[in-house]
Structures are given as C-alpha cells and as structure tokens.
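Lecture 7 notes: from sequence to structure.
We start with the chain below.
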Amino acid sequence: MMRPFIATLLLLAMSAHAMAADKPVHSSTGGIFQILIVLLLVLGLMVGAAWLLKKFNASGISSPGGIKIVGGVAVGNRERIMVVEVADQWIVVGVTSTHINALSTMPRQETLPSDGLPINNRFADRLKQLIEKRNAK
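Predicted structure tokens for the same chain:
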C-alpha cells in the first residue's frame, strides 16, 4: 500500500532535481536553497499522505469481510477491551497478547453505550472546561 506512495515521492523528487539541473546555478547557496525547497516539499507530501491515511483508516471504513472496530480501551500494558461490529451486531472482545475472547454481544447501537456522546465530544467538552478554568484564574 505504501509502495505506490513512495514511488510517487521518488518520481517527484527526481523531476524536481531534473528541473533544477536544467537551470545553471551561479552560487552554492542557490543550490542548497533549491535542495532544501525540494526536501521540504517531499516531507510535506509525506506528512499530508500520512494524515490522509490516518483520517481514512480511523473513519470506520469496514474491511472486505464486513468487520469494523467501533471502539476500545486499554486495560493494561498489552490488554484491551474492544467493541467490534459484525453484521449489525456488536461483539465486546477482550484482547491480550496471546488470546482474543468474546465477552458479550449486543445489537448494533447508534451511539456508544457509555453516556450517548462520542468519545471525541466528551474529550472536547472536558478540554474546554479545563481551558476556561485556567483562564478564569
């Protein structure tokens, strides 16, 4: 999955280098400046692609088998409790370094069962309260 991305970055870097080679460079400072610009461009493309990959993978796109991870929480160094959606059913599983055990099943919910708010909204609300409290002092 990363090979086409890396190949594209290499082609961009080579084309930028070829464009820079066509123009005569009169000083070493100009050559270094061109190299830094190309390097920053390639690094920016890498960061942008990583952000896009993270955004699309975290959005809950289901796998070809129809399995989607709804959420999870770490309960130890290598232990997690996760909610997995399979065919309109949520399965609560315990995941360790050696085992995966089904703990419970429930019908598919519209929201997470904790308090009805998605985790991101709860975090945003809590962060807003802490900032307001700090600024009030």
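Points to note: The first helix runs from residue 3 to 22. The beta strands are 67-74, 80-86, 89-95, 100-107.
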